[in-house]
Amino acid sequence: MVDAADVDKVLNRAGLTNLRVREYVNYWAELTGADGVEVVSAADDARLIQEALDAGELLPAGEGRFYSRSFHKDTARSEERTVVASSDVEDRGVYNNWHHSAEMKPLLEQRMRGASARKTMYVIPYLMAPPGNELAPYATGVQVTDARTVVLHMNRMSRVGVEFLNDLEDPNQFVRAVHVTGDLPNLGQGTPEDQRYFVTVADERTILHFGSSYGGNALLGKIAHGLRQAAYDGWASKKFLGEQYMLIGIHDKETGKDYHICGGFPSASGKTNLAMMLAPDVLGERYHVSFYGDDIAWLWVNEEDGKLYGMNPEYGVFGVAKDTNETTNPTALASVDPGTKAIFTNIAYNPDTQEVWWEGRTPEPPADNTGWLDWKGNPIADRSPEQANEPWAHPNSRFTTTLDNVPNIAQDYNAPAGVPIDAIIFGGRTRDREPLIRAITDLAEGVYDGLTLGAEATAAAEGKEGVLRYDPMSNRPFMAYGEGDYARHYLDIVGAAKDQPIFAHVNWFQRGDDGRFLWPGYRDNLRPLLWLLQLKNGEVKGRETAVGIIPTKEELNLEGVDITPEDLETILSIDVPRWKQEMTYRAEHLAQFDNLPEEIWEAHRRVSAALDDASN
Ligand code: GTP
Ligand code: SPV
Ligand code: MN
Q1: Which whole number is the average pLDDT over 154-176?
Q2: pLDDT tens per residue across span 284-332
Q3: Could you tell me which of 208, 200, 275, 267 has the C-alpha nearest to residue 231?
Q4: CA-wise closest residue to 18 among 133, 150, 176
Q5: What percent of the chain has pLDDT over 70?
Q6: Among 73, 280, 282, which residue's Cα sits nearest to residue 194?
Q7: Three-class SS of residue 432?
Q8: Atom of ligand 1 nearest to the CA of 244
Q9: Which of 269, 327, 399, 437 has most ligand 1 atoms within 8 Å of its beta carbon, as the pocket-test mutant?
Q10: SS3 per-residue string spanning 408-430
Q11: How far apart are the first and last CA of the chain?
Q12: What is the C-alpha to C-alpha distance for residues 242 and 121, in angstroms, rounded to an integer?
């Protein structure tokens, strides 16, 4: 076990002068029983990559690309084991799985005590913001972790270096983010004896995660700080919102205008793909889409000009691999090209050729399966007939790459100011009822729409056919405090902005009776977004319905789109009986929330009444 004098020497050598950070590092080095301490910065990446290759934690995937496997029971975020803790029971919500911090902290300390024995504790000072951004004081943190691959991912996903921590105005204003991997084969994942805990002690700005080395549970700057802690801080300070949103720019080369759209879809519902979208070929001459962020946006009102701004706190992309190919997302493929130092996790891998593959990369898997291993590391060639149809890659397998590798990265993504927000969109996977796009011009109705956002019940989330699994603002897994208070805070922040953003609900996932997607999606998703901006500018009128304004066929630019007139009709119409049924579920859903603002109930009643009057 490392002693305090050694820790001090390491911190001195790294130039880590912030005394509060030093105390924190010392405390956890002793408690976890780590063998040694190492402070990392972005400049250490090449050496750490080499160490990880030597140790077999990473495998080479061609020139300048790497492959990793996580433990086979540790491949996704665990919502059941994720807890928001605080010392105030008023912070309890329906979805945040609140527990008192006095209960949780001892539990975590007990699990973490001695659990990093014989390991190095890496100290990662990070910033979840463009440097100089006005929310930077909420964005500094120090993750300690006993996993080298977690360091490599954090290097790609956040800005890392001691400079972000040394000169804080308030030396105590940093998030303490502790990650201890634990003995993965013996944690009882998914059983009644599950040992894992992923806790954000929100009112102490302390994150304690034990029992995983998978991204969503272990990259603490991202989900735990960038979303849960940020949501709490934004509310406590009354200054900002932390949302699971993508953020894009649309440049109109004809008018020279720039627009910015942010918005939330639940996990694995298309944020990364939308943010990396190229304009469809026929629109490429006129429009350019630029990438600001694909998973998190913080939103605030700039005091000087009174406008709503947004920024992406992250520095990289942790994207879903499945179905990423030259047609769906060429930008994503280019962002993980040889030489990008991208890291793949849990896809299929061929150690002989260093090739990688995932479902949807090509229509069929490689014809010659010699040497190919599935995501668990088992040879494909050895599969029994019963196993033949199992996927080669895990459905939640991912790629990790930095923003600089993204071909359509916005030129000003690193600018401290952030960008003004013109529109906020919500969407989910819904196979019926939700049209391609419906615009909402009223703030309370927009927030109401976000709160009633839902995605189809899947095998993982039990539910009746046709009943959605509600995911308020696509933030259900990241809710940090009560939903009613959240709605109030959202209304207050956005409501204070001088130019109100337009809201919209979008759906790329409506299906026909045969299960096919009615809308081609991906690059064509730019078309409804352009319509939305035109509507905001008063250039089109759309058609008023009970649930928002939808485009007419003529208004939507459909040049070169592969869709039948019947399917187009379906995605541009409102199924009133289905909507009326949905309203009863919504009422039950909203009734769960304490302190829900009256404006939200009024919006619900307005939409209900309009549906009662509607015939289309
Ligand atoms: P998280 O990183 O989990 O938050 O996910 P995300 O919201 O960024 O989702 P992502 O863009 O990675 O997409 C998830 C899956 O949906 C991928 O398999 C995509 O290929 C697929 N997908 C994305 N956009 C579309 C679309 O417009 N149409 C269809 N049919 N599928 C899409
Ligand atoms: C999500 O699940 O919404 C993600 C990936 O963005 S993870 O980092 O695993 O949470
Ligand atoms: Mn996400």
Answers
A1: 96
A2: 999 999 999 999 999 999 999 999 999 999 999 999 999 999 999 999 9
A3: 200
A4: 176
A5: 98
A6: 73
A7: coil
A8: 4
A9: 269
A10: CECCCCCCCCCEECCEEEEECCC
A11: 71
A12: 29
pLDDT at 436 over 50: yes
pLDDT (0 to 100) of residue 370 = 97
**Cα–Cα dist 87/552, whole Å:** 52
**What sign has the CA pseudo-torsion 218, 220, 224, 226?**
negative
DSSP letter at 63 equals T
Q: Is the CB of 319 under 6 A from ligand 2?
A: no
What is the share, in percent, of the chain residues with pLDDT greater than 90? 95
pLDDT in tens, 494-547: 999 999 999 999 999 999 999 999 999 999 999 999 999 999 999 999 999 999
The angle at the Cα of 100, spanning 102 to 480, to the nearest 5 degrees, equals: 130
Residue nearest to atom 22 of ligand 1 (CA): 270
Q: How far apart are CA 474 and CA 271, in angstroms?
A: 11
pLDDT in tens, 302-312: 999 999 999 99
What are the distances in angstroms from CA 437 to CA 254, 312, 474, 509?
A: 25, 24, 17, 11
Choose one of 294, 318, 458, 475 to mutate for the ligand 2 pocket test, by most ligand atoms within 8 angstroms of C-beta. Answer: 318
CA distance 97 to 106: 17
Cα gap 261→246, rounded to integer Å: 8
Task: Supply 346's token pair.
Answer: 């849990």
Q: What sign has the CA pseudo-torsion 339, 345, 346, 351?
A: positive
Mean per-residue pLDDT, 185-203: 97
Compute how many other C-beta atoms are within 10 angstroms of the C-beta atom of residue 167: 10
Residues 6+ apart with CB under 8 A from 539: none
The closest alpha carbon to 243, from 227, 223, 220, belongs to 227
In this prediction, residues 109-125 reach a mean pLDDT of 98
Q: Do residues 185 and 71 make contact, with C-beta atoms less than 8 angstroms apart? A: yes
Q: Which residues line ligand 1 (CB under 6 A)?
A: 265, 267-273, 294-295, 319-320, 322-323, 328, 508, 517, 521-522, 525
User: Whose structure tokens read 């905001």?
Assistant: 536
Phi, psi angles (nearest 5°) of residue 299: -120, 140
Give the C-alpha distances (Å, rounded to integers) separating 6 from 11, 17, 33, 142: 9, 15, 13, 19
Contacts of 135 (CB under 8 A, 6+ apart): 129, 239, 240, 298, 300, 311
- Inter-residue contact 292 to 130 (CB < 8 Å): no
Name the band, by pLDDT with cuts 50, 70 and 90, for residue 459.
very low
CA distance 151 to 163: 17
Measured distance CA(355)–CA(370) in Å, rounded: 12
CA of 77 relative to ligand 2 center, distance in Å: 7
Position 115, amino acid: A
The amino acid occupying position 404 is D
pLDDT the model gives residue 460: 39
CA distances from 73 to 57, 68, 80 (A): 17, 15, 14
